[in-house]
Amino acid sequence: MKRILIMATRPFLDDGLTKVEMEIYYYNRHIINFEFSTGYYQKNKYTECIERDNVKINQLPSKKFFPVYMAAIFNLIKREKYDAVYIHGNSAMMLLEALPAKLAGCHKIVTHCHNTRARFPFIHYLFKPVLNKIVDEKIACSSYSAEWVYGKAKAEVIVNGIDIEKYQFNQGKRERIRNEMNLDGCFVIGHVGRFSAEKNHAFLLEIFRQIYSHNKKSRLLLVGEGELEPEVRKKAEIIGISDVVYFMGARKDVRDYLSAMDVMILPSLYEGLCIVAIEAQANGLPLVTADTLSPESYVADNVYSESLQNDITKWENIVLLAEHNGRQNNTELLMEKGYSADRMMKKIQTILLR
Q: Above 90 in pLDDT, residue 273?
């Protein structure tokens, strides 16, 4: 059985990157002997699940002290002699993990890019050519992500897959949630995502305020948690819509809330491939996004995009158009286009085992 080290370059959070890391682990743990490493260790539901399986999480020094961090990676890989390292990240700063792995003699380095932005773009562009020279297998979740981190280097674009049937629309769940929340007869707009800068919640609140000013039966459901939640709550109060904005927290039953919504809005500043967008389309939910999402995020006909540069009125109009056109069954289309979790996992498994 191969020994592979999954290197988490970010904390384990309720976000798309962590979700993909964990799904890859669960899918392959019976045929691959995994370990994890991270410089952001904290006790939470993800680390507890891993450790419950008696899988080791190697705690590294803080990434802020990158020479010490890289030295710890070098020593770990030199000592353990893994068959491969599998690095998940958002930019060419994955070099901080890939370079010490290479110097330690690792024979196979796999990188998987999940986004199209970096906190330090200058360093990203500085590291990019070196990363591409030393990495053996390059994976990206979308064409935008591949271009961002790998440029013209050969890379495998593997879209984020989901359990399509699990996210199908459920009339019973819709009625239950809307009854419990007193949403009968309301126009329910939804958003699923961490409260972080790239999700652009402040702009979402402005769109909703415009819609609410013309339809007092409008309601906004925000599913997720994150560091900016207090700031978003404060803004909702300041602009006078806090009574009709529902903060739902992180939930395990997100698919049920998709059924309760009438339209989803995703005004992200940037995304790799937005898993939530695929989940919404599996539900048949009309979806309005910023035009910043990668082409692979758009599969169904009831997905609409708008520029973040356009005024709120244009956003309101396209949301109302999406509501008017309504839901549609996208199950066969998503399966045909390769968005099933099983197809995604088999492609990744092939790369890890070859």
A: no
